[in-house]
Design goal:
By secondary structure, the chain is mainly α. The protein has helices at residues 3-17, 21-27, 30-45, 52-80, 85-95, 101-116, 120-127, 140-187, 199-208, 210-223, 227-237, 247-257, 286-312; strands spanning 261-262, 265-267, 270-272, 276-277. It starts with a helix and ends with a helix. A two-stranded antiparallel sheet has the order 1-4. Strands 2-3 form a two-stranded antiparallel sheet.
């Protein structure tokens, strides 16, 4: 069975439909099911009174348990799919919920519209849905910067990486990646509660995103129609980012749009004084978000063509 063809079909369905609210209200979403399991294990195994070593072991056990629980049904379902076109179609439908092509576009567009109209409060409410920093501290440029950064980073985490591991491992590869990424987003933080407990989840997420993040940056640069600018910026500035992976798509996006991203930001009571990516670029605005979305759409076409080529090969 061609896993590339399966991922191609899943991507087409997601791009066309997203995850409808009616469906979400009835059955939820596979990622929220995984999140509920992670939250339960966090409550049960993450002992605030435990030593750092004990909490690291408990965190590693949590990672192992989540991966086993997710991999088992995914592997059984993959093995049960019929051969031929029917199996590919069913596999594509099952891959669909693990992708975020349509929702990514819609969330970013929901920030661009009020920001372009000068409604900062509505733009802050919208950007709060996709970033963790304090939206009340963001001016127009800060809102645009946070939105474009989220678009770049989450294209890697929410689309390219799931497709990459789905092409390699089918439904089990796809589901396992989403489990790892969800664990990182929930417990992979450098906070007193999760720095030790979430260490294994964060390191594993860094590992599985090494190739997809760089691939995402390359696709952005090539789809930008100015790779001679975007690629050098990506190569020069990706390593300045706090993340070993997020800097690649963000730097490529910054170079492609001619704006500066990253830089100092506020998370609750904590101020992160970080360097800018593409520091010589202008501060972004709503028009740059729109240009970023246009680049995102071209990148999705490139990915679809790549998947189709792999399926035919």
């Amino acid at each position: 069975m061609s896993f590339a063809a399966m991922m191609f079909l899943g991507a087409l369905v997601d791009a066309a439909l997203g995850w409808p609210d009616r469906l979400h209200s009835r059955i939820g979403h596979p990622v929220t099911w995984i999140g509920a399991l992670i939250a339960s294990l966090d409550r049960r195994l993450n002992d605030d009174a435990g030593t750092g070593r004990c909490r690291r072991i408990a965190g590693a056990a949590t990672v192992a348990l989540v991966l086993i629980v997710v991999a088992t049904p995914a592997t059984l379902v993959q093995a049960a799919l019929p051969a031929g076109p029917l199996g590919l179609v069913l596999g594509g439908v099952l891959a669909w919920p693990f992708l975020a092509i349509r929702s990514m576009h819609d969330h970013v567009a929901s920030v661009a519209r009020p920001l372009a109209a000068g409604d900062l409060e509505a733009a802050r409410r919208a950007v709060a849905m996709i970033v963790g920093r304090d939206p009340a501290r963001l001016d127009g440029a800060g809102i645009a910067r946070a939105t474009i950064e989220s678009l770049a980073e989450n294209t890697s985490d929410g689309i390219v990486a799931p497709l990459f591991w789905g092409v390699i491992g089918g439904l089990p590869g796809l589901a396992l990646y989403k489990a790892i990424n969800t664990m990182d987003s929930m417990i992979g933080h450098r906070t007193p509660r999760h720095e030790a407990f979430g260490w294994a989840a964060a390191r594993l997420d860094d590992l599985v995103n090494l190739v997809p993040a760089r691939l995402t940056g390359a696709v952005f640069a090539l789809a930008s129609l100015r790779p001679h600018i975007a690629l050098p910026v990506m190569w020069r500035d990706a390593g300045q980012h706090r993340s070993p992976n997020a800097g690649w798509p963000e730097a490529a996006m910054a170079g492609a749009l001619g704006v500066r991203l990253s830089g100092p930001r506020v998370y609750g009571a904590r101020i992160a004084d970080e360097p800018f990516v593409n520091d010589g670029g202008a501060d972004p605005d709503a028009a740059d978000i729109a240009r970023g979305l246009a680049l995102y759409r071209r990148a999705m076409v490139c990915l679809a063509a790549l998947l189709a080529g792999l399926a035919l090969a």
